[in-house]
Amino acid sequence: MSGQLKIAVFASGNGSNFQEIVDQVREGKLGARIGLLVCDRPNAYVVERAHQAEVEVFAFRPKDYPSREAYEEVIREHLIARQIDLVVLAGYMRLLTDVLVKPYEGRMINIHPSLLPAFPGTKGIRDAYDYGVKVTGCTVHFVDSGMDTGPIIAQTAVPIEEGDTLESLEEKIHTAERCLYPQVIHWIETGKVRLNGRKTVIDHTERSHGTIT
Ligand code: GRF
How far apart are CA 147 and CA 166, in angstroms? Predict the structure, then answer.
């Protein structure tokens, strides 16, 4: 990859992470371009956000396809046609198959609302809250074929304080996510993230720029 990073965001619902990325691109805090929003729920609010931001959308209904692989092949064609460098999963509520995971290995990231490997799955915030942990948070990781199992790039800890409700905790974690995700995208677009087996190394010196390695 050289030049400006072109990203596709995958989302299923509200899209507050998508919006934060859009805003940071507009403000010039991120150098990346958003080439596509992929959404499996055409009525989701994130689609409206994309239209307002003039981001191209591929929205589809999974039930219109014979299998997951079938719609992922269509998505892959869209990604290739737009020369997408990095796939950013932001609340995309579907497991991916190797049709997408393999070609984007090391070039696909996800944000999860807990400190992985604790509380994977679709209810990360609630599961941590119900368990009674004192610290939870959010995790950005590369995507592999497991559920929330790929190499971790960065995490933010969020303490659960006395008096926190599930709602107040959700708010704190979403705030932390909106800070962490653009930060990681910025590290990637400036070539600071290197994958070494299961471990990622973040280069904090000033000389790196513009490559995904
Ligand atoms: C976030 O909490 C993210 O961690 C999880 O799904 C949620 C998406 O929120 N994977 P939003 O659609 O970006 O508002």
Answer: 23
- pLDDT score of 211 more than 70: no
Residue 157, CA atoms < 13 Å, CB-side half-sphere: 5
Q: What percent of the chain has pLDDT over 70?
A: 95
Q: What angle separates helix 166-189 from helix 124-131, to the nearest 10 degrees?
A: 130
For ligand 1, say whether the CB of 13 is within 6 Å of any of its atoms: yes
Question: Distance, CA 207 to ligand 1 centroid (Å)?
Answer: 33
pLDDT at 204: 85
Please choose, from the candidates 187, 179, 182, 177, the residue with its C-alpha nearest in 3D space to the C-alpha of residue 208.
187
Residue 111 phi, psi dihedral angles, 5° rounding: -115, 135
Token output for 42? 């055409």
Q: Is the CB of 90 under 6 A from ligand 1?
A: yes
Q: Is the dihedral of CA 41, 186, 53, 177 positive or negative?
A: positive
Query: What is the model's pTM?
Result: 0.94
Residue 4 DSSP symbol: S
Residue of 109, 128, 126 lying closest to 118 (CA atoms):
128
Q: What is the number of other CB atoms lying within 10 angstroms of the CB of residue 91?
A: 21
